[in-house]
Amino acid sequence: MFSKILIANRGEIAIRVARACKEMGITSVAVYSEADRDAPHVKACDEAFLIGPAVPAESYLSIEKIIQAAKDSGAEAVHPGYGFLAENADFARALEDAGIVFIGPPASAIDAMGSKTMAREVMEKAGVPIVPGATEPAKDLDEARAQAEAAGYPVACKAVGGGGGKGFRVAMTPDDLQEAFEGSGREGMKFFNDDRVYIERYLEDPRHVEVQVLADKHGNVIHLAERDCSIQRRHQKLIEEAPGPHVDEEMRERIGKIATDAARAVGYFSAGTIEGMQHGDEYFFLEMNTRVQVEHCVTEEITGVDIVREQIKIAYGEELSLKQEDVKIDGWAIECRINAEKAHMNFAPAPGPIEVYDEPSGPGVRVDSGVKAGSEVTPMYDPMVAKLIVWDKDREAATRRMLRALDEYEIAPLSTLIPFHKTILRTEQWARGETCKDLTEDKKWLKTTAPEDTSIPEPADGEAEKVARDYLVEVSGKRFDVKVIGEATGFAAAGAAPGAGGPKPKREKRAGGGGGGGGPVLASPLQGSIFKLEVAEGAEVAEGDLICVIEAMKMENEITAHKAGKVTKVSISVGDAVASGDPLVTIE
Predict the structure, then answer these.
(1) Which 8-state DSSP code applies to residue 193?
(2) How would you classify the pairing of strands 332-339 and 466-475?
(3) Which of 151, 206, 323, 410 has its CA 20 to 30 A from that of 141?
(4) Angle between helices 89-97 and 63-73 (to 10 degrees)
(5) Which CATH class is domain 132-201?
(6) Is 476 helix (H, G, I), strand (E, B) or coil?
(7) How many CA atoms lie within 13 A of 224 on its CB side?
(8) CA 358 to CA 351: how far, in whole Å?
(9) Neighbours of 200 (CB within 10 A)
(10) Cis peptide before 243 (omega within 30 of 0)
(11) Where do the CATH 3.30.1490.20 domains begin and end in the chain?
């Protein structure tokens, strides 16, 4: 077995791989950017190497720096985790040239499956059902229009090298195609250095069902059943579960065969995932992710298979430790992604500091986290800070356990999706196993997921500064937690005794609004940089018109007018960095 493995990633997946290494008696090596000097993944590994500044292109995406760190550390193999270089065929080849093992599939398989059009062509030839559409990228807008007409509207414009919801735009009608086509190409270039786009039919509200496969270098290929990842926003996953709530044994066997046939078609080895669309009784191949998935945990929980450990053993040349008939499904698992986002503000990214961090625990609860108290979630990287996974005997029991665990999870003052998860898991749509698309795309419903407002009102002119203090009150032997808001000095609740540790004054800033409530100033709801500006001074706008696009945490966020009127001042330019609460434009 390998004696030392370098982990070319950060956050919770780097810690996950480091834990597997420790259990296997393998020395782990972390790499970190200047922004991650004190990150938990650095301390989770046995050794650590600085590889550059915070900008991913100069650190975690630098093939040369990763390979140099592997050589300097004496690592025999590199595990890429997910994201960054995990599906980069050039990285796999560069490691091979350097005499270092890539813990993943062969570069040829990454090439075949990394290109969405090539993957569709390979799968079609292998007899795997694909979503109707093109198998070649469109050379220009005119060819894209032809592909769209052939596929039939609505259509999806998809970046050839895309993934994780990046480079995916929908055109419901021909009038929408140009914007969707160009936006998909722009994101493809930004995130994957490839602006090629192809068109396929857009299936409205299908279930997103994927199959986990494991394949070794000896020709053995098995699947570990399916996961349902239908709860999404902007085509990016929020909640995953296994098994699929609408997959019966017949379909499980059928899609399992589709997945293993797809892996064999490209000579695959390592862990991989066949993603597909379940549309009634139909199932279409969507794409293959040639890496470990974020949501691999739910499959581990219901099968008992350590997928990361299997990856490492496969890379070393060992045969799979189990056969298809050994795979058994036990119980139900659910995973909630704990992202630094404000769901009530249309999932706006919300980077910031973490001062309080307390994870849930107890039977059937697992937390894969990349943060701690004192961590800073920066806008440089993905917004996911942790994954909360639960297991129980069935879906209903697992849902109750997840709600209990979410109630126990404390993260402050960072805004996360915890309130969103609590709200959606209590809906009838979730109970019926629906995709919940009607909720995640409804801005009015999303506002109901806002966390409780614990801010202190600003004092009126002449009033003293106010603070909040917490007290424990006992009445007839029953305990109550009481919050009292009063002047900063000299007040106490009648009959109340301060709680353990004494009163805890705290003051919160009034949130910088988005110009709501009819005020003239539209303020930025998030920290990021101005990617696109759509208005100029003097322009007349209607409520809901696009004002600008802010790029933050690997996402483009559209900021719309909060009211109708005339733009009397533009406070930003393309490329500007903005903080939450900064003025964008004034509309009067």
Answers:
(1) S
(2) unpaired
(3) 206
(4) 40
(5) alpha beta
(6) coil
(7) 28
(8) 18
(9) 24
(10) yes
(11) 132-201
Q: Which of 233, 554, 176, 189 is nearest to 157 (CA)?
A: 176
Gyration radius (Cα) of the chain, Å: 25
CATH of domain 521-587: 2.40.50.100
pLDDT in tens, the chain (588 residues): 999 999 999 999 999 999 999 999 999 999 999 999 999 999 999 999 999 999 999 999 999 999 999 999 999 999 999 999 999 999 999 999 999 999 999 999 999 887 778 888 888 888 888 888 988 899 999 999 999 999 999 999 999 877 667 789 999 999 999 999 999 999 888 777 789 999 999 988 899 999 999 999 999 999 999 999 999 998 899 999 999 999 999 999 999 999 999 999 999 999 999 999 998 888 999 889 999 999 999 999 999 999 999 999 999 999 999 999 999 999 999 999 999 999 999 998 999 999 999 999 999 999 999 999 999 998 888 899 999 999 999 999 999 999 999 999 999 999 999 999 999 999 999 999 999 999 999 999 999 999 876 666 666 666 666 776 777 888 888 888 887 777 655 544 444 444 444 444 443 333 333 444 468 999 988 888 898 899 999 999 998 899 998 888 767 788 999 999 999 999 999 989 888 889 999 999
Strands (E) located in 138-206? 155-163, 166-171, 197-201
Integer Cα distance of 44 and 46 in angstroms: 7
Using the CB atoms, write b or e for 499-536: b if 16+ within 10 Å. eeeebeeeeeeeeeebbeeeeebbbbbbbbebbebebe
Residue 29's beta-bridge partner residues? 6, 47
The model's pTM: 0.82
What's domain 207-449's architecture? Answer: 2-Layer Sandwich (3.30)
CB atoms within 10 A of CB 558: 12
Q: Closest by alpha carbon to 191, among 383, 351, 381?
A: 381
> CA–CA distance from 308 to each of 260, 299, 437 (Å)?
19, 12, 32
Q: 174 CB contacts (<8 Å, ≥6 apart)?
A: 145, 148, 153
The overall longest dimension of the chain from CA atoms, in Å, is 79
In sequence order, what DSSP letters do the residues of 399-438 get, joined into one string? HHHHHHHHHH-EEESS--SHHHHHHHTTSHHHHTT---HH
> Which residues, listed in sequence order, are joined to residue 556 by a DSSP beta bridge?
551
Other beta carbons within 10 Å of 565: 16
Cβ–Cβ < 8 Å for 121, 198 = no
Tell me how far apart the alpha carbons of residues 439 and 534 are, in angstroms, rounded to a whole number: 28
Q: In a 3-state reduction of DSSP, which class is residue 445?
A: helix
The CATH 2.40.50.100 domain(s) of the chain lie at 521-587
Distance CA 237, CA 207 (A): 12
SS3 335: strand
CATH of 4-103, one of 3.40.50.720, 3.40.50.2000, 3.40.50.20, 2.40.10.10: 3.40.50.20
Between CA 538 and CA 550 the distance in angstroms is 22
